Amino acid sequence: MKKSYIRLGVNIDHIAFIKKARETNYPDLCRAVEICEDAGADVITIHLREDRRHIQDKDAYQIRQCCKELNFEMANTLEMVKIAKDLAPNYCCIVPEKREEKTTEGGLNLSDLPTSSKTIFKDNISLLKDTGIEVSLFINPTRNDIEISKELGAQAVELHTGSFSDTTDENQLKIEFDKLSDSSIYAHDMGLKVNAGHGLNYMNIGKIAKLPHINELNIGHSIIAESVYCGLKDAIIKIKRIIESCD
Ligand code: PXP
């Protein structure tokens, strides 16, 4: 049976990094959005970090105006919920955030959540849903975290593919793939949309695109890195071809 279409979310934080590094008004993020969408990106993903290290508030509002579909990655804070409600992206993905980390290193730590934190999660998720935003949680691929995501009211999960992407050991690769595959089926059976992302690149995407029930893959760093050599448009076309050839 032919696999259903897998949507591609292109994360443009790394383009904003270049802008922020020199506090310039270039590169123009809306020009990047236009190229991404023309090349076949289904959704534009941005992460407004609490430390504003790449995307700035004004970038987020500008991108909202020029993109077709926006996926807004955010920490589980009231500040971010307020911004999201005002920004009105199509999707919000709640992610863990640590100031010292280079990037989002793992999924949300849902297993040890005290009742008070669960309540904050539930309240924030319902505030976002009430605005018409579809809410996803960035989680490690475990059945337990999927069950908690459902309990908290999420409509989707994004499975963290970092452990899969980081390992070079064949046995470990199989273990990580099996965890993602099991989680994908489990989340789908629970009525959740299944997205995945982190550390995906031109070498490993072929395997990930074979996972069952994947709705969307979110990719940033590798696409922007490849675009240095071949341009943003071709970098996206190239990764989409690999995803689409994985039947
Ligand atoms: N999905 C989420 C939730 C993320 O936080 C990130 C990193 O910002 C990505 C996907 C993209 O990861 P990468 O830049 O490694 O492709």
Topology summary:
Elements: E1 7-11, H1 13-22, H2 29-39, E2 43-47, H3 57-66, E3 70-74, H4 78-87, E4 91-94, H5 115-130, E5 134-139, H6 143-152, E6 156-160, H7 162-166, H8 170-189, E7 193-197, H9 205-208, E8 214-219, H10 221-230, H11 232-244
Parallel strand pairs: 1-2, 1-8, 2-3, 3-4, 4-5, 5-6, 6-7, 7-8
Helix pairs in contact: 2-3, 2-11, 10-11
This protein binds pyridoxine-5'-phosphate (PXP).
Pyridoxine-5'-phosphate binds next to strand 8 and helix 10.
Describe this structure in words.
With 247 residues, the protein is an alpha/beta fold. Helices cover 48% and strands 17% of the residues. Helix 3 (57-66) links the parallel strand 2 (43-47) and strand 3 (70-74). The structure holds pyridoxine-5'-phosphate (PXP). Pyridoxine-5'-phosphate (PXP) binds at residues 11, 13, 47, 73, 93, 95, 103-104, 138, 158, 197-200, 218-222.
